[in-house]
Specification:
Shape: globular
Number of strands: 31
Helix content: 25-40%
Structural class: alpha/beta
Largest sheet: 6 strands, mixed
Number of helices: 18
Strand content: 15-25%
Distance between the termini: 48 Å
C-alpha cells in the first residue's frame, strides 16, 4: 500500500471484522463492496430501497487504533432526507450508498438488514434428560370468602397450596399482590399457581398465577457466546425442545474479542451500560423469535438458565468486567447466580426466575461449566480433553479422579478475523479446502453450495452467493493442506521456491502467498495469515499441554470439541495443524453446543445445578500466565504439528512431509528429513 493510502481513513466493518483504508469522500457502500462485506442494495445506490442501512459506532477502539465518530461521516444529504420523508429509518442509521467517509470509522451492518447473514450453527441436542425442574404448576380450587372466617384471599390460596401440594410457608412475588383477588374471581376460585423451588428445603416462591387451569409452562436455556447467542425454548412439563435459534452477539461492534470489549468499557464511560443493553436486547429479540417459531406466549416462560464466558456473564448481569482484564482476573461473582427476570430486563413472565451456572475461574466461565456438565469427564474413568475453541479457548481435562481447567487467549483468528480474506461463517464463505500435492491446485466448497469448486455446475450454483472469503473451518484446512502439500515448512514459512512449480505461489514483497481463488474478490492466504493461525493454535496447544503435565499424562483418551466452531472442524486437519494433541481419530468428536446442552440440563433438572456447583468447587484452576514453562510449550507448538511432541496415531492416517529448513530470506530452501519420533 502506498504512503498516500496509509494516510487515508481506516474503516472497520462489523460483525465481519473486515477493514481497509479509503480516500475521503468514498461512499460507505463502495468501501463495503471492495472489502467483500455484504451490504444489500436493491435500488443501485439511488437511496430508494433503504436496504443498505448501516450504523456508526462511536468511541475509541484501542485494538484497531481507531477513534470512530459521527463527525467522520458526511452529513445527511438530500437523497437520505427524501428517503426519510417517504419511509422511516431507525434513529442512528444511515444509507451507505449516500453516506461518505470523512475519517476513521467503525461501521456496524445491522443483521436485520442482511440477507446473507452469518450462519449461526448451534443446534439443540437430541439427548433426553430426567426432569426435575425448579418450576411446578399447581391447580387449586380455593374456598370462597366467608364472613365467619376472615382469612384473606391470598391466605386461603396458600392454605390450599399447602393442603393439595404440600408447599408450606410460601413467599409471594410482590407483583402478584395487587392481582390475586382479580385472578381468583376471574377463575371462579380455580387458579393455577407457578411455584419455584430450586434448592430442596428452601422456601417455595409463588411467581405467577392464572385463572382456571393453565397447563403451559416453558423455560429458556441460553448460551451467550462472545460471537453468537444460542437459545432453546423448552416445555418444562414435557422436557420437549419446542424451538431453537441463534443470533450474532451485537457486542461484537464494540470489539471482536473479549479483551477489546473490556478495553472499550475502560475507555468509554458508558461502555458497560451500552454493552449490557445490547446483549439483553438481543436476548429479548431471540426470545420473541423462538416463541414465534414455537407458538408460545413469552409470558409463559417461567424459568431461564444462562451460560456465558466470564466477561459475557458480567456484562449480561450489568457488572463492570474491568477487573477481568488485568491480573489477578478477579470475578465479581463466581458462584451460581439466582435472580429475577425483571431485574435484568428480560421480556418474559414478570415473576420468572433466572439461574446462571457458576464460573470456574477468571477466564473459564459458566459456558465451560455447562460443557463440563454435559460431557461429564467427572463421571468416567477415561481421561477426557474438552476444548471450546472460540476467541478465548476454554480447556477442561480430567476424569472422575481429578479435573483441571485453564483458558488460552487464541484470539479471533479461527473465526475469520485477523485473516486477510477471513470472514465469519456465512453463505459464500469457503468452508472446506483440498490442495493437490503434485499440481498445488486447490478445490474447495463454500457455504450454501453443495458442489466442490472443481465439479460441473459449481460456478452456476455459486453465482447467487459468490465466493466471498474464508471461514474458520477452512482456515484450519487450508493451512494444514499447505503444510501437507509442501507449500509451507514445519515452521510455517511459505516456500518461495514453489513459485516455479505453480503460479498459485505469488510474491508479496519479501514474503509469499498462496492464491486460493482467483476471482472477485481475490482470495489469498498470506504469510501473515499463517502466522496468525500459528499464534492461535500454539496458544491453545500450550494450554492443553500444560494441563496434561499437571495431570502427569503424556496422552489423552478422548477429545471433545465443543462450540459451534468445533462442530465444523475436521479432527484430522486440527491434528495436522497441531491444534490438539495426538489421539486415535475415532476418539475425537464434535459435541456441538455442549455449553447450551449443559444449560438445558440445568433448566430441566435442578439436580444438575447442584452437580455442577459441587464439581466447580473441586476443579483445579490453572493460570497459564503464571506457569514458568508455558512459554517453551508455546514455542514448541508454533511448529506443525509440533516441534517435539510425537503424533503416532496421526501418522497412521496421514503422511507428514519432510521438514523444510527455511532459507535466510524466508523463501524456503533445502530439505532435511523429519526426525523419527519413537
Amino acid at each position: 500500500m502506498s504512503e498516500a493510502a496509509q494516510t487515508d481513513p481506516l474503516v472497520l466493518f462489523m460483525p465481519s471484522g473486515k477493514r481497509g483504508r479509503f480516500p475521503v469522500g468514498t461512499p460507505i457502500l463502495d468501501a463495503a463492496r471492495k472489502l467483500g462485506v455484504y451490504v444489500e442494495s436493491v435500488c443501485g445506490g439511488r437511496a430508494t430501497c433503504g436496504r443498505c442501512q448501516i450504523e456508526v459506532q462511536e468511541g475509541s477502539f484501542a485494538k484497531h487504533k481507531i477513534v470512530s465518530s459521527l463527525d467522520h461521516i458526511s452529513p445527511v444529504g438530500p437523497k437520505e432526507k427524501r428517503y426519510a420523508e417517504v419511509r422511516t429509518i431507525p434513529e442512528g442509521r444511515r444509507l451507505s450508498c449516500s453516506a461518505q467517509i470523512l475519517g476513521d470509522l467503525v461501521i456496524d451492518v445491522p443483521q436485520d438488514t442482511v440477507v446473507n447473514a452469518q450462519v449461526i450453527r448451534k443446534a439443540a441436542t437430541d439427548r433426553t434428560f430426567d426432569r426435575n425442574p425448579a418450576i411446578q404448576l399447581c391447580y387449586v380450587e380455593v374456598d370462597e370468602p366467608d364472613m365467619h372466617k376472615p382469612l384473606g384471599d391470598l391466605d386461603r390460596l396458600n392454605a390450599m397450596l399447602e393442603k393439595d401440594w404440600g408447599f408450606k410457608n410460601i413467599l409471594v412475588a410482590q407483583h402478584l399482590l395487587p392481582e390475586v383477588q382479580k385472578i381468583l374471581r376471574k377463575g371462579n376460585w380455580g387458579v393455577t399457581a407457578a411455584i419455584h423451588r430450586d434448592i430442596e428445603g428452601s422456601r417455595p416462591n409463588l411467581i405467577a398465577l392464572w385463572p382456571g387451569l393453565h397447563n403451559e409452562g416453558y423455560g429458556i436455556a441460553c448460551d451467550i457466546g462472545s460471537t453468537t447467542i444460542a437459545m432453546h425454548l423448552v416445555s418444562l412439563l414435557s422436557g420437549r425442545v419446542v424451538a431453537s435459534s441463534g443470533t450474532s452477539n451485537p457486542q461484537i461492534r464494540f470489539g471482536e474479542d473479549l479483551m477489546s470489549r473490556v478495553s472499550y468499557v475502560m475507555m468509554n464511560p458508558d461502555g458497560r451500560e451500552a454493552m449490557t443493553k445490547a446483549v439483553r436486547q438481543a436476548i429479548n429479540e431471540l426470545t420473541v423469535k423462538v416463541c414465534t417459531e414455537g407458538g408460545v406466549d413469552p409470558n409463559d416462560i417461567l424459568d431461564a438458565v444462562f451460560v456465558a464466558n466470564p466477561i459475557m456473564h458480567h456484562l449480561f448481569l450489568g457488572i463492570d468486567p474491568t477487573e477481568l482484564g488485568q491480573a489477578p482476573f478477579a470475578l465479581a461473582v463466581s458462584g451460581a447466580v439466582h435472580t429475577w427476570s425483571r431485574e435484568i430486563d428480560l421480556a418474559i413472565n414478570h415473576g420468572a426466575r433466572v439461574y446462571l451456572l457458576p464460573c470456574i475461574a477468571g477466564h473459564v466461565g459458566a459456558d465451560a461449566a455447562g460443557a463440563t456438565l454435559a460431557e461429564g469427564p467427572h463421571r468416567q474413568d477415561k481421561m477426557m480433553l474438552l476444548v471450546d475453541v472460540g476467541t478465548n479457548a476454554e480447556i477442561v481435562l480430567g476424569n472422575r479422579q481429578r479435573v483441571v481447567a485453564a483458558s488460552s487467549p487464541t484470539g479471533p483468528a479461527f473465526e475469520g478475523a485477523e485473516i486477510s480474506s477471513g470472514q465469519r461463517a456465512a453463505p459464500g464463505a469457503i468452508e472446506r479446502v483440498r490442495i493437490d500435492p503434485e499440481t498445488l491446485e486447490p478445490r474447495f466448497r463454500v457455504i450454501g453450495v453443495d458442489k466442490w469448486s472443481d465439479e460441473d455446475g459449481f460456478a452456476e450454483a455459486a453465482a447467487s452467493v459468490g465466493v466471498t472469503g474464508i471461514c474458520g473451518s477452512a482456515i484450519i484446512e487450508v493451512v494444514a493442506e499447505m503444510y501437507l502439500s509442501g507449500i509451507i515448512s514445519e515452521d510455517g514459512v511459505v516456500d518461495g521456491a514453489m513459485a516455479a512449480k505453480s503460479p498459485r505461489i505469488i510474491q508479496n514483497g519479501r514474503t509469499f502467498s498462496y492464491l486460493l481463488h482467483d476471482g472477485e474478490p481475490r482470495i489469498t492466504v498470506t504469510q501473515n495469515d499463517i502466522r496468525a493461525i500459528q499464534l492461535a493454535k500454539a496458544a491453545l496447544y500450550a494450554g492443553i499441554k500444560l494441563l496434561m503435565e499437571k495431570q502427569g499424562i503424556d496422552h489423552v483418551d478422548t477429545i471433545c470439541f465443543a462450540g459451534a466452531f468445533g462442530t465444523f472442524i475436521d479432527p484430522k486437519y486440527a491434528m495436522v495443524l497441531g491444534l490438539i494433541p495426538d489421539c486415535d481419530l475415532s476418539d475425537v468428536k464434535a459435541v456441538g453446543n455442549a455449553a447450551g446442552t449443559g444449560a438445558l440440563m440445568a433448566l430441566l433438572n435442578r439436580g444438575h445445578r447442584r452437580e455442577i456447583e459441587h464439581l466447580v468447587s473441586r476443579i483445579e484452576k490453572i493460570e497459564t500466565a503464571l506457569e514458568g514453562n508455558f512459554q517453551q510449550l508455546f514455542v514448541n507448538a508454533m511448529a506443525m504439528p509440533n516441534k517435539v511432541d510425537a503424533f503416532p496415531n496421526l501418522s497412521t492416517v496421514v503422511t507428514l512431509p519432510e521438514r523444510k529448513a527455511p532459507s535466510d530470506d524466508g523463501e524456503g530452501g533445502g530439505r532435511r528429513r523429519r526426525r523419527s519420533r519413537e
